[in-house]
Amino acid sequence: MEKIGFIGLGIMGRPMAKNLIRAGYKLAVYDKYANLDDVKALGAETVSSSREAAAKSDLIITMLPNSPHVKDAILGKDGVAEGVRAGAVVVDMSSIAPAVSREVGQALAAKNVLFLDAPVSGGEPKAIDGTLAIMVGGDKEVFEKVKPVLLKMGSSVVHTGGLGSGNVTKLANQIIVALNIAAVSEAFTLAVKAGVDPQLVFDAIKGGLAGSAVLNAKVPMILDGNFKPGFRVELHIKDLQNALDTSHELGVPVPLTASVMETLQALKTDGMAANDHSAIIRYYEKLAKTEVRKIK
């Protein structure tokens, strides 16, 4: 692959791009807002627009906050569609509405450009160490073509079906993660209010049926009072809104998702939108008038 255009170098995109550079790929990088000096220092070429990134590349990756940003970067003025060559592949790794993935894919197909939706799970730590879970929708042959590149950013890369199925899978993932954090928060708030050491509760249950990747990743952060974002509350709100919209379109009731969405909205109202989603515990702490922290 001659060169990869990488658009969107935020909390997730920046380490993902760096992993591609370290793997030996040449990158043309663009971000509307972020300073890219550190990525340039590793050997990437910085460009002035999504259009220029696409014009220089035969594989273009986008990693952006939400559906409108993806549509703008790909289909908008000075976007990918204005510079991309016929036969190129565009892989959107953002977490967006499945319907928008299909819309963008159809628009690019009219230009003979191939498109995959490939959202990721794992947050900033797994973006940094290159062990993201990547779920991919679109043509299977195109998937096989780009899979070696994706494996430089993730340890699990799974083709989930047709265009949009990657983002449907991500919505399912985000529902499970949000509800899991909420369940952990309820349980540990109860334990602390009952006078039990939360560290010992964690040690006792992590190897049993209640054990999970969420439990292992989030409880240590909660016990340290560390809510520095690996995945921000406001981004989980965005994902759950996409899940609610999609579920309503399909006639699928998701009452637990709606409930945890209101918890996240309460955190946003309390000024915690930029905190890690493990801050869900703070909603329960406020209700119970307690704190779940290590006992010193």
Any descriptors?
six-stranded parallel β-sheet, three-stranded mixed β-sheet, 14 helices, globular
| Strand order in space, largest sheet | 3-2-1-4-5-6
Main sheet makeup = 6 strands, parallel
End-to-end Cα distance, whole Å, is: 54 Å
Low-confidence stretches: none
Residue fraction in strands: 5-15%
- The best one-word shape is globular
What structural class do helix, strand and pairing data support?
alpha/beta
Mean pLDDT, as a whole number?
Answer: 97
Task: Tally the helices.
Answer: 14
- How many beta-strand elements? 9
Radius of gyration: 20 Å
Question: Would you kindly provide a written description of the structure presented here, covering whatever features stand out?
Answer:
With 296 residues, the protein is an alpha/beta fold. Helix content is 52%, strand content 13%. The chain has helices spanning 13-22, 37-41, 50-55, 67-75, 80-83, 98-109, 123-129, 140-150, 165-193, 198-205, 213-224, 233-250, 255-269, 280-288, and strands at 4-7, 27-30, 45-46, 59-62, 89-92, 114-117, 120-121, 132-137, 154-161. The strands form two sheets. A six-stranded parallel β-sheet has the order 3-2-1-4-5-6, with helices on both faces. The protein has a three-stranded mixed β-sheet with strand order 7-8-9. Helix 1 links the parallel strand 1 (4-7) and strand 2. The longest helix has 29 residues, at 165-193. The protein starts with a strand and ends in an 8-residue tail after the last helix.
